[in-house]
């Protein structure tokens, strides 16, 4: 049976350091049906980050201009910096049948879940608060003050897990990736995504 397909919008969220980026990198390497929605941010680029690959790094002025143009599906201030998901990264791709993946904070995830009824939402949980702390220190991308700020925010974020359709505990990376893959593969087969063409 010939079919046309509408892409899936996959929202992955969770506290900083839970392992979202690690799981997302794997998913994107393993599954070419997914495109990553590159967000805009006003925060400074980290050494290993590439502009327009990890984020579109922009000035506060450019961010204000995009806001005024209604260019965002959602936007939020996260750990003191501004982030936003561009409509141009998402909707056209979905119409073409491509799956689109968002790595966004719980405030943004809430907006998207409310707006996009067919989206798939997954919350990544750390195995423990202590492990979350260790991971943020091991990653070593923020200074100790910023790490404490992120850990402080994590408590409230984790309490919101019930807003998501799925939760994955990222203790063993292998198991967490297996679980994420199982969710994604089942969601791909939902009838809402298929439009049969009867010839
Ligand atoms: P997030 O994107 O949620 O902020 P990252 O993917 O950057 O988190 O992961 C935070 C740190 O934890 C990184 O140093 C990463 O290599 C490490 N990490 C991710 N998953 C695991 C895991 N299952 N076990 C141990 N360390 C992990
Ligand atoms: P980081 O600065 O460590 O890359 O990301 C900090 C937080 O911002 C993470 O929770 C990440 O998911 C979130 N984030 C990244 N892009 C966006 C976005 O476009 N919108 C929202 N709401 N959060 C984002």
Biggest sheet character: 5 strands, parallel
Under the CATH scheme, the architecture of one domain is 3-Layer(aba) Sandwich
Runs in which pLDDT lies below 50 for 5 or more consecutive residues are none
Q: Quick one: overall form?
A: globular
DSSP summary: helix tally: 7
Kindly state the percentage of residues in helix.
Answer: 25-40%
The first-to-last residue Cα distance is 9 Å
Question: Per DSSP, what share of the residues sits in E-state strands of 2 or more residues?
Answer: 25-35%
Strand order of the largest sheet: 3-8-2-9-10
Bound molecules: adenosine-5'-diphosphate, guanosine-5'-monophosphate
The CATH topology of one domain is Rossmann fold
CATH homologous superfamily designation of one domain: P-loop containing nucleotide triphosphate hydrolases
H/E element order: EEHEEEHEEHEHEHHEHE
**Structural class of the secondary structure composition?**
alpha/beta
> Nearest-angstrom radius of gyration?
17 Å
The top-level CATH class of one domain is Alpha Beta
Average pLDDT over all residues: 95
Number of beta-strand segments: 11
Summarize the topology.
Blueprint: E1 2-5, E2 9-13, H1 20-30, E3 34-36, E4 39-41, E5 55-57, H2 60-68, E6 72-78, E7 81-86, H3 91-95, E8 99-103, H4 106-115, E9 120-125, H5 129-139, H6 144-159, E10 166-169, H7 173-188, E11 194-197
Parallel strand pairs: 2-8, 2-9, 3-8, 4-5, 9-10
Antiparallel strand pairs: 1-11, 4-7, 6-7
The structure holds adenosine-5'-diphosphate and guanosine-5'-monophosphate.
Adenosine-5'-diphosphate binds next to helix 1 and helix 5.
